[in-house]
Amino acid sequence: MSFAELGLMPELLTALDAVGYTSPTPIQREAIPIVLSGRDLLAAAQTGTGKTAGFTLPLLQRLATTPVLHPAPKHRIRALVLTPTRELASQVEESVKQYGQKLKLTSMVIFGGVNINPQRDRLQRKLDILVATPGRLLDHVGQGNVDLGGVEILVLDEADRMLDMGFIRDIKRVLALLPKQRQNLLFSATFAPEIKTFAQNLLDNPAKVEVAPQVTTAERVEQRIYPVDRDAKKALLQQLIVDGNWNQVLVFTRTKHGANRLAEQLDKDGIPAMAIHSNKSQSAREKALGAFKAGKLRVLVATDIAARGIDIDALPHVVNYELPNVPEDYVHRIGRTGRAGAGGEAVSLVCVDEHKLLADIERTIRQKLERVIVPGFEPDPNARPEPLRKPQAARQPRRDFPPRSAQGHGGQGHNAQAPRSAGSQRDGQPRSAGSAAAGNRPQRDGGRDTGNRSRPAGSGQRRRPSGNV
């Protein structure tokens, strides 16, 4: 099947030809006709399956070929895409621009960690498609910079991750500002129970698409385990990189501090490396990612949240320097390689502390991973495990999610204030009421905003998040 057979317009086909895409992926074959028909959609697709094009292409066509659904005296945003992280938001907006280059539609991306004022100025001009992280979007709503009353299409990308990160309340506030009559598209890695509950209250008789079994790993990714003592991990990683002549390696750690320390040690030992995590400024993250994509940086050390949205063509190697606390995150991590039909290698350095985490991962993916002992790095059979830092408690979705009939109408979108509860998060940064001194307050979403923003009374101060972000 070709993209033309899916019913895409010539302008989009030309853009696809320009980037060399000739055949749709399974998620694109399933999702594009549904979105073009105007139906709500609940889709389960892992990263690297082409899901971004699966919703951006038909979204662009619907906006280009249908009249404005919610006309107003001033131009309103017609499509809103919410993502959990800055990197994913930037990636989605790049796709919108790339595929929509022949269409007279405008788009922009907004996220925290950068100056809010240029975003505010751009929001005052004609805008059809807005890609945003929830926290910064609500900043603009609170300042009256954006009107959501004209949204015709809402996309929630990586909805499972947004729920995991505690964005449920932020999303509910955004939904209350949207018109009831709209198309909703929800994409998630799996149809986990909390996603099904969330979808029941958001989607209207949706079509369901699932292109892969739940929690599967990429078939083209070669996976193996290297048992090693905890204190020998860095030396083993260096040997693997040097002896294997690995020139582009994405390495995962559990904590931001661990990412910084490992990157500094590798760089000091002559292996160019940088860290990327939520405490880094947006400019630092873009610099590191740009150097890594360009081949100027050999190793990029990342935490799980920071790595969401990293899309690198033909990334050959992913290393789990530390196993994740949540088995599903293992799937997301190794999904950075083996993308778009290319092969890839995912290795994990596992010490005695992580044997239970490894058992959980193998049980989840229903696969026994190959063990490889490297001479000189044989683990001590008498080593005793040390307790790992407890993972941050997952936030459960609330069951009192407002039904579609109770959601607000578009007229309240422009000037509506969106107060925040103390338990919500900001683009990956948790909040907690009154639990930290002002001087111990972390930067929000990787960098303090320079624009003016009023904080509602009683919202409390932010507590420094635990290291697993």
Automatic annotation (TrEMBL):
Protein location: Cytoplasm
Residue ranges, annotated region (Disordered): 376-469
Family of this protein: Belongs to the DEAD box helicase family. RhlE subfamily.
Boundaries of every Helicase ATP-binding domain copy: 32-209
Gene: rhlE
Reactions that this protein is recorded to catalyse: ATP + H2O = ADP + phosphate + H(+)
Protein name per Swiss-Prot or TrEMBL: ATP-dependent RNA helicase RhlE
PROSITE patterns to which the protein is assigned, alphabetical: DEAD_ATP_HELICASE, HELICASE_ATP_BIND_1, HELICASE_CTER, Q_MOTIF
Main location: cytoplasm
InterPro entries: DEAD/DEAH_box_helicase_dom (IPR011545), DEAD/DEAH_RhlB (IPR044742), DEAD_box_RNA_helicase (IPR050079), DEAD_helicase_RhlE (IPR028622), Helicase_ATP-bd (IPR014001), Helicase_C-like (IPR001650), P-loop_NTPase (IPR027417), RNA-helicase_DEAD-box_CS (IPR000629)
Enzyme type, top EC level: hydrolase
Native organism: Halothiobacillus neapolitanus (strain ATCC 23641 / DSM 15147 / CIP 104769 / NCIMB 8539 / c2) (Thiobacillus neapolitanus)
Entry function: DEAD-box RNA helicase involved in ribosome assembly. Has RNA-dependent ATPase activity and unwinds double-stranded RNA.
Keywords associated with the record: ATP-binding, Cytoplasm, Helicase, Hydrolase, Nucleotide-binding, Ribosome biogenesis
Any single Pfam family the record assigns to this protein: Helicase_C
GO biological process: response to temperature stimulus; ribosome assembly
Higher taxonomy: Bacteria, Pseudomonadati, Pseudomonadota, Gammaproteobacteria, Chromatiales
EC number: 3.6.4.13
